[in-house]
Amino acid sequence: MRLVASRNAQSALEYVLLYGGALIILVLMLALLVTIVPQNYNWVSQQAEKSYDEQVCDQIGDHSFSRCRVSDSVAPGDVSGFNISFSPSSPRTIYLSWVWPGDDGLMQGGVVESVEITFVHDSLTGGLGVDAIRDPVQFTLLRQNGDLLHGPLEDAGSFNVPIPSPRQPGVLEVLLVQFPPGMNGTYYFGIRAVDDAGNVSKNIITNTYTV
To answer: Which of 103, 6, 107, 96 is nearest to 63 (CA)?
Structure first.
């Protein structure tokens, strides 16, 4: 009798371990599906919005053709890794660095058309602070009315800094900006990407530096 009871207990334990392990595996698989399926669905949805011509351009990594430009409704990815460093030597130099995004997302769609960079002195933000750069309308106004204290670097008075030609998604870029001696204080910098259809990044990435 004891032997039978021992075997029954062992069988019950094996049953619990077997089905308990299967349940754990099932839960892990469901958690994995919950993570992967939405991402794939979003990617498939983006692809479905594109024409056949644009999908071909995505594959070859070249969006210079007119068919791609006309059909492109997907915004480029946000610029990442936007950092600022300063050299106090003469002439004083600010180094702006960032990582190039893709034309149709962070790493998708090939090379973007360009990036737009602007900056504003704290005294000219009207109390908005860095929000003066984050807001797309304010960002555009700053780019349209550049001068020695604010505006796009490539048009801001004596700066005339050429923005580097776009490179492949994921490539690090560094831009040198020489500041005149009279420019001091806190500056807010903003950057966003633009594709060849005029779409802009969803978010303007900002950084702050005090000279």
So the answer is: 103
3 state SS of 15: helix
DSSP 8-state assignment for residue 77: P
**Amino acid occupying residue 158:** S
For the chain, what's the residue count?
211
pLDDT at 148: 43
Q: Where are the domains of the chain?
A: 2-49, 71-210
pLDDT at 174: 93
Phi and psi for 198 in degrees, rounded to 5? 90, 0
Contacts of 164 (CB under 8 A, 6+ apart): 173, 175
Q: What is the distance in angstroms between the CA of the first residue and the CA of the last residue of the chain? A: 88
pLDDT digits (tens, 9 = 90+) for 98-135: 999 988 766 666 788 889 988 888 888 888 888 888 98
Separation between Cα atoms, residue 27 and residue 187, nearest integer Å: 50
- d(C-alpha 58, C-alpha 52), whole Å: 10
pLDDT score for 42 = 46
The answer to whether residue 171 scores a pLDDT higher than 80 is: yes
Tell me the residue type at 118.
T
What class is the 71-210 domain? mainly beta
